[in-house]
Amino acid sequence: MIEPPRPEARPHTIALHGAEIPDEYAWLQQRDDPALIPYLEAENAYAAAVMADTSALQQRLYTELRGRIKEQDLSVPVQRGPFLYYTRTEAGRQYPLVCRQLAPDGPEAILLDVNQLAEGHSFCSLGPLKISPDHTLLAYGLDTTGGMIFDLFV
Amino acid sequence: MPDRVALMAWSLEWGEDGRTLYYTVFDHAHRPYRLYQHSLGEDTANAALLYEEPDERYFIDLHKTRSRAYLLLRLHSHDGTEVHYKPAGEPAAPFMLFDARRSKIEYKIEHQGENFLIMTNAEAENFRLLVAPTSDPTQRRELIAHRPDVLLDGVNAFADHLVVYERRAGLQQIRISAPDGSGERYVPFPEPVYSVTPEGNEEYATHTLRFAYSSLVTPRSIIDYDLATGTWLLRKQEDIPSGYDPSLYVAERLEASAPDGARVPISLVRRRTTPCDGTAPCLLTGYGAYGNSYDPGFSANVLSLLERGFVFAIAHIRGGHELGRAWYEQGRLGQKQNSFSDFIACAEQLIAQRYTSPARFAIAGASAGGLLMSAVVNARPDLFQAVLARVPFTNVIAAMLDPNLPLTIIEYDQWGNPHDPEQFRYMLSYSPYEHIVAQAYPHILATGGLNDLQVPYWDPAKWVARLRARKTDANMLLLRTNMTAGHSGASGRFTRLEETAFEYAFLLKALGCAEVEPAGV
Questions:
Q1: Handedness of CA B113, B118, B119, B125 (dihedral sign)
Q2: Could you tell me which chain B residue has the CA closest to the CA of A71?
């Protein structure tokens, strides 16, 4: 029997409008509390241990889910001025490529490969992406934390 | 030669000169609050501050009209909106105020030819559409009047057509007309219950409207709809390489009666062979906040459950926009608990119609849908066997008392302001973390993201910690925190599937379905 983590209850109350609301786990809100990360990691380990008897099922489900994705795929192109813009994905790669071609069937130019941008990051998500009106420049935002805060690149 | 800006918010637009960039940035609480104008090649530290929003309830965003003639700066809260506009081709031109903000008044504008179109809820709960010349935006006349049974959900202006998105009886409609509103017609949809999402549509001078169409049985399809001829062109349909036969599945719509008599729609899908005798496992999901409608669209992932005999259902509870603006208003602020009682009514309806039974019943919700999960499981732990709460909002009081969280001040108009004694008492009456009691709870899996700025990691953590201390059962109670991601979980498409596989394995184990062989395709 695996024992679950039992985080410390530290007496704390929120007093407001005459009410006394106990909040014994308020300390978990302190990101720099030294006990925080060990607690979250202990919960992750406990969850994995409780679910260990489903590891074959998890693998099977993953195979089913992945089997429903067309790994090499292409979005329906959007025409902007003389170009067709589209994204595509490649088999075995986590992130899309942003591409364009001269309409109707010019050669492909890869504008951004998010797989490359994601290198060295455990999280990577494209934010707003805008082509300049003359189609010579690309401005885009990139979030590498999951906080939806973007770095802007031109 | 890259120009770079850190901490940009969601908006980014080019000036029509191709040398000017406009972007928004966050304040310390992750609120988009400033608009900057940057000339390419110059030091971004010298970018001009064009606007700063002092009211902490208001977020700002910027976008260019489809006509590319105007930049629109929109200041919006859950209480009202204010739009400023300027010609997109004139970097030196100032932004002009369209209509000043007024409490409870929301509006959006579009540009079409010589006119602005104004979608507003002024004297129109479900919104109406006005038109005014760009030369004098105060000269307004009504193009589409208010309708009590139809919500005006959005407007797209094209050079030769006006496209209006509506909701009637819980279903989305697309209305097409000439710019002056004449020649009105509706896009016909092939199934009785479906979901439609506009796609791109960036070109102004086009006769093609692109949208994504799907239903609980029809995979996501990209449609190019000819606005002039009404031709429906399927450009692409989501391909499922391992195989999928839609004829094996059936979608249905039911209704449940809420305690106050409101009729709550339910959408569901199952394999035709899944028995309706109370033995089937069921996953019921819902959201019910911000006026976001939970439209019944296709999910390839859910097939793993349906192939194992599940019924998958969506409760269209109050707090969403499904049945109009009133449906939203009746599920927020001092009426928030309608969302929870609606969901419980839907669950009871599914049991009464023998789609499932409590021992086979799982529920799932994310974010504000996690508030829903944590609230209904406090109230009716007996109805469910398993709960999946993704990034759940459970600490309503603690979160709304933390002004440094991005969704605090702006959210006062969604959940209530705890500094107001009356609103505080109402929030405290349902805040799920405060109502965890010593009772038997279902199996529970909560997820969080350490970098989540919408629902902080500590919200699910505190919920699980207190549940563990108080609950009286021996059921599973799991907390899974992604230490390198935020509100939406992992970013890589395969890593995300690993998360889903874990969650489904939890549901199958909790419902005693871990050994069930999936039916063939």
A1: negative
A2: B241
